[in-house]
Design brief:
Distance between the termini: 38 Å
Shape: globular
Bound molecules: riboflavin, magnesium ion
Number of strands: 7
Structural class: alpha+beta
Number of helices: 5
Length: about 220
């Protein structure tokens, strides 16, 4: 697992992202202002419950990789707040509505610097099982599962993959996301106790909010 880069400072300051230095300066000048101040490793796993809302509508159209955007207002998060969700790309598990299927997911949190959004979004791509007919027959297996609008969603992000990046072209962005999906699928097959625990939470109806009270 790669460790988060230098944009995450505990003192609240934000510094430039090392990995973005490889990309065109023209597009990265204001990225530091958008990146998170929390180190993802201090808040993982990140649990969230919410409702699926319409996003910018580019996932399916531009990328062929749809995402289920989480509503911020009705969302509950294991971090102290929505603002505290560290931006970046993660892998984990997801469940929709009353369906008991648990999907592996590759999830983006942030401002989609390729597009320069001014709103922070949480958008998991749900990965169908290899034998699912809705799964694309490519090496990556990105899946077209439908839009899930207005359905409830439960998500646990178990691991951090990389920072969000302002890729120089759509093909580069798509290539990176497909690699994230491959990675999410592999990490999701792990049998560590922490992974099992998150699958159990996703399958449950338990709250995402970690209770601050303790017995006694
Ligand atoms: N957008 C970016 O601008 N840069 C990224 O590095 C990036 N990585 C992503 C990784 C994954 C796994 C997913 C699902 C999305 C990512 N996105 C990224 C967001 C993407 O631009 C967005 O899903 C579409 O624009 C649809 O809203
Ligand atoms: Mg979307």
């Amino acid at each position: 697992m790669s460790s988060p880069s230098t944009n995450n400072n505990y003192d609240g300051s934000a510094t430039e992202n090392d990995s973005s230095k490889h990309h065109s300066d023209a597009k990265i000048h204001d990225i530091s202002a958008l990146t998170t101040v929390l180190d993802p490793s201090t808040v993982l796993p990140i649990r969230m419950t919410s409702v699926v809302v319409k996003g910018y509508g580019r996932g399916s159209k531009d990328l062929g990789i749809p995402t289920a955007n989480l509503d911020r207002e009705s969302g509950q998060f294991s971090t102290a707040s929505f603002e505290d969700l560290p931006t970046g790309i993660y892998w984990g598990f997801c469940r929709i509505g009353t369906d008991d299927h648990i999907y592996k997911t590759a999830c983006s949190i942030g401002y989609n610097p390729y597009y320069g959004n001014n709103r922070k979004t949480v958008e998991p791509h749900l990965i169908a099982d290899p034998n699912d007919t809705r799964r694309h027959k490519s090496s990556c297996g990105e899946s077209l599962l439908g839009d899930f609008y207005d359905q409830s969603i439960r998500l646990s992000l178990v691991g951090y993959l990389r920072p969000e990046l302002p890729f120089e072209g759509l093909d580069k962005l798509i290539e990176a996301i497909k690699q994230d999906i491959v990675n999410a699928e592999q990490f999701g097959d792990g049998d560590a106790a922490s992974i099992q625990l998150e699958k159990i939470w996703v399958a449950s109806d338990d709250s995402a909010i970690i209770s601050k009270t303790h017995p006694g």
